[in-house]
Design goal:
Blueprint lengths: L2 H10 L16 H14 L2 E3 L2 E4 L2 E6 L1 H7 L3 H19 L2 E2 L4 E6 L8 E6 L10 E3 L5 E3 L3 E5 L6 E2 L10 E6 L2 E6 L6 E3 L2 E3 L1 E3 L5 E4 L2 E6 L2
Parallel strand pairs: 2-4, 3-5, 4-15, 9-10
Antiparallel strand pairs: 1-2, 3-6, 7-8, 7-17, 9-11, 11-12, 12-15, 13-14, 13-16, 16-17
Length: about 220
């Protein structure tokens, strides 16, 4: 099943019953998700050794369309963000921050149409970083730090839900980037699965069942 179709099935639970009638004409949520993925694809930036995808999106709607989505705006934004996170992870693109989506009422927008703007929004760059383990151990981050069950990893995880070579944290221009190494059970930042993403102050990194908290001091 494609990401857009998966998104539509999840959102059906939100728009069941009388609310679902409002989506029989005009803009469909699945159309939004497809346009956002296209926008992310069209505005990705090819950098040295990686691709950076935009992470902040504004969807401009005509006032009647905006009012139609208001009752489910928070759920819609959350599901759209989830879909874009999955898309970026699937393609192996880097996000410099969490996905942010804003719905905006635009006075001159034609009913039934949408205008999407996107940008790459960065948080302050971390020059140094520390991962704090569940037992309080503080791990100062070097240029590259590897995690997994294998004994050749820098941080050996006694966790059967982790892969032998699960993930790495790498120092990059924007701070410290988490890179999943094709793990079986995935790498998560703040409970969202990622392929590559830059860590920010307070982020929760989860590998298998093992969690760390990222701080800059």
């Amino acid at each position: 099943m494609g990401l857009a179709q998966d998104f539509e099935k999840r959102l059906q639970r939100v728009v069941e019953g009388t609310l679902a009638k409002t989506f029989r004409s005009g803009i469909e949520p699945i159309e939004m998700s497809r346009k956002l993925m296209r926008e992310m694809y069209d505005h990705k930036l090819v950098s040295v050794g990686r691709v950076i995808a935009p992470n902040r999106f504004t969807i401009g709607l005509a006032a009647p369309d905006f009012e139609k989505f208001e009752p489910i705006e928070s759920q819609l934004r959350a599901e759209l963000a989830r879909t874009l996170n999955q898309y970026a992870a699937q393609e192996g693109w880097t996000l410099l921050g969490p996905i942010e989506i804003l719905l905006e009422s635009m006075p001159n927008q034609t009913v039934g149409t949408q205008r999407i703007r996107c940008e790459t929004a960065e948080r302050p760059v971390a020059d140094s970083g520390i991962l704090i383990s569940p037992d309080g151990q503080r791990i100062e981050l070097p240029d590259v730090l590897s995690f997994g069950r294998s004994h050749d990893c820098d941080v050996i995880l006694q966790d059967h839900n982790c892969s032998r070579h699960h993930a790495e944290v790498r120092k990059v221009d924007e701070g410290f980037e988490v890179v999943d190494l094709g793990s079986t059970n995935g790498t998560f930042i703040n409970n969202v699965q990622v392929q590559r993403q830059v860590l920010r102050e307070g982020d929760a990194l989860r590998l298998g069942r093992t969690s760390f908290r990222f701080v800059t001091s």
